[in-house]
Amino acid sequence: MTDLSNGIEHAQRAALARVDADPEETAEWLDALDAVVAHVGRDRAQYLFDRLAEHARASGLASPRTPVTRYLNTIPPAEQPPYPGDLDLEERLSAALRWNALAMVVRANRAYGELGGHIASYASASDLFETGFNHFFRAASPANGGAGGDLVYFQPHSSPGVYARAYLEGFLTEDHLKHYRREIAGPGLCSYPHPWLMPDFWQFPTGSMGIGPINAIYQARFMRYLQHRGLANTAGRTVWGFFGDGEMDEPESLGALSLAAREGLDNLVFVINCNLQRLDGPVRGNGRVIDELEAQFAGAGWNVIKVLWGSDWDPLFARDHAGALARAFADTVDGQFQTFSANDGAYNRARFFSQDPALEALAAQLTDAEIDRLRRGGHDARKLHAAYAHALAHRGQPTVILAKTMKGYGMGAAGQGRMTTHQQKKLDIDDLKAFRDRFRLPLSDSDVEQLTFYKPAEDSPEMRYLHARRAALGGYLPRRRMAASKGLTVPSMPAWGAFALDAAGREMSTTMALVRMLAALIKDRDLGPRVVPIVADEARTFGMASLFRQVGIYSPLGQRYEPEDLGSMLYYREDTRGQILEEGISEAGAISSWIAAATSYSVHDLPMLPFYIYYSMFGFQRIGDLIWAAADQRSRGFLVGATSGRTTLGGEGLQHQDGSSHLAASTIPNCRAYDPAFAYEVATIVDAGMREMVEQQRDVFYYVTVTNENYAQPSMPGGDAQAWREGILKGMYPLAAESHATAQVQLLGAGAILGEVVAAQRMLKEDWGIDAAVWSVTSFTELQRDGMEAERRARLDDDNPHAMPYVTATLAATRGPVIAATDYVRAVPELIRAYVPRRYVTLGTDGFGRSDTRDALRAFFEVDRASIVLAALKALADDGELDAAIVHDARARLGKSAQRCVAPWQR
What we know:
Elements: H1 5-17, H2 23-39, H3 42-58, H4 87-111, H5 120-135, E1 151-153, H6 159-169, H7 174-178, H8 211-228, E2 239-244, H9 251-254, H10 257-262, E3 268-274, H11 289-300, E4 303-307, H12 314-319, H13 324-330, H14 334-342, H15 345-351, H16 357-363, H17 368-372, H18 381-393, E5 399-404, H19 429-438, H20 445-450, H21 461-472, H22 493-501, E6 507-508, H23 510-522, E7 531-535, H24 546-551, E8 553-554, E9 574-575, E10 581-582, H25 587-598, H26 600-603, E11 609-615, H27 620-632, E12 638-642, H28 661-665, E13 671-674, H29 679-695, E14 701-705, E15 711-712, H30 721-730, E16 732-734, E17 745-749, H31 754-768, E18 772-777, H32 780-796, H33 806-811, E19 818-821, E20 840-843, H34 854-861, H35 865-878, H36 884-894
Parallel strand pairs: 1-2, 2-3, 3-5, 4-5, 7-10, 7-11, 8-9, 11-12, 12-14, 13-14, 17-18, 17-19, 19-20
Antiparallel strand pairs: 6-15, 16-18
Helix pairs in contact: 2-3, 4-5, 4-6, 4-21, 5-6, 5-18, 8-25, 22-23, 22-29, 25-27, 31-35, 35-36
């Protein structure tokens, strides 16, 4: 996040320093604006102000450098709606939640010091959450089949507070709380929101800073997409995002703000917990982070509401006719505000109120204890309720609420405002007793010492109130739907993939084949509307332009212009009911849209089938954190790495050529990764993926790499179709079933390099008289997982002492060394080394990519046919099946020599 503090301060001081040439005229303008506010309302005044600013810009006048308002609350007391709740009961409930959240962390770390956990974050966020839980967060109601309801992205470090509430609600037991951060044995609680670990509770993973904000934005956008396409009624539902001010430094946190404003997502509310502290110290010690955030959100087109000061300050503001408080706030930076929060009323009187006689006079009527109780706005339910209500009523823009809080609020000397408060995991007995007394908890000294969890009796006024409020809002949350109430029916493969099954040698790339399948699937009456094509500004590259006219590009504004190519068959058509999500040059945005669609079965009880097609180098390498979060969220859909491999995207060079995405994909347990070479393999994989994800509703997603290289596509092999299918899906099969029995060497090829392997087979036969069998390896990852599972069964199960991996069993009836060549780093084929029963040689594209022709690149990386032939000959010689002199001659004949050049990974 750019530090704007100095610029903001300069602009404010420059404005004050200007000489007013006509004070009387200025007063008339200001009086007129005040009159509109007083007699017509703030909305009308804001409208006039905005129109005046637009007119000024149109007239060539410079606009203010930064849209920053005074360091005061946005909503004046006179415009606060009446508070609808029972503050006394809410404060007692809040005290119980605060204690239980603290107790579960301290108990865990007393027993196991390495477990960690966070106390101070929830201490600052509790009132932000509770105002929502008591008055705003609507749950999916049983009345509409469990669909609908608001969506809440919770600040991850405040998870203990959400657990504490679920304990009072009865969803979690005391045993759950006792097993905080201990999930292996017993009913444990995960550290942060993780749907994979608590699939019936957490909806959205937010533990990696920055992914929550961008996912919340694209979730709100996807809800509009569903509404406009007539697939779901998402009107009236709100996406709430609770995030920290320090988290806003992550590029993903602010990177999609303009999209939310551009598309008018008034179903989106961010609440930023501005406790002014991150892990090590102040977020902006020498500036004011709230000013920065206001400038950035307002500049991006958001509605900004500041909640800085609690109701205790209102009488002071009312008496401050000279504006002394506002001036003092403008001269105080966050580092000093933090110091104020860490000290008592006497210190704040001496250091803040004594800096100006006008401030001294304001504080003269207050005792030190009353000064100590002056709350920040984020700890005042009345102020927060007003802000939330205004946010929901606002139309045409997303809203951000900047709520000023104290980190470690209520922790006293043990943590409130302290530099080390984020690391505070334990409190001594005196600190615990002080916490009890501060929040008036009915706990004995023994209860405090033993960290006894506190739950009021079920028939107590507090518990009746808690359940009544949630009943009024439709039920409890967070709660996660684990399966859609109804899956989808997948059409038969010939209906959309017949051309691939019977390709008969027609030339095409696997990218073109997949796009053709996608176009056919979209035409299916039942499944078609649920397909979501997603691209990051490369649709034409991938041959998807035909879909522009067929289904249109989604835009909430429709198409307000005449596209330049209107007369063409493939013109660029935007439509409010468009099906394609064209995300521009934003892989992070595109994957966030994919996540929203891939989890729609759970979030909206509406299974969707997203296909995100992108340059494979810009997937796992660029947005791996978001893909990992997608896995955690149990996403279901297809990620399609197009133009994949190190050597197929010839001229694009180092940054674009992918040699490692399959290695990254292999680390994600519920990602099924495939690197098919032929169109019929692609069709088989897509068919299996659709059936697994939307028919059987299994929590997996598929990563399929396809290439841009045109070559002759064979038809699906004849014979036992089920056997071929099984081989493709398990990860390998022979291209000619009859050849491997007599072959002297086994050649394994994958994806883009399979063609080189087939050519190497011919060379071995024609030039050296050696028979070789060729195997298409569609997934080294699936083979490795099968091997690990077989290994584990043999180790742990007496009934399966000789469990055999699929690779081992498949190669058992063959002979000779095994050579594997891929367009990826050698670590990918190395995944199965443990399960190959004989000499195993791997070839890959380790090193930096570079620009050249495909042939030159494959020769450079030593994955061309000549290199494969040489590897086979050398392996045979090492096995004693071939004279070493033949290998020596082959090197010279093929132009391969160690002296010729250094290794590709060293260049």
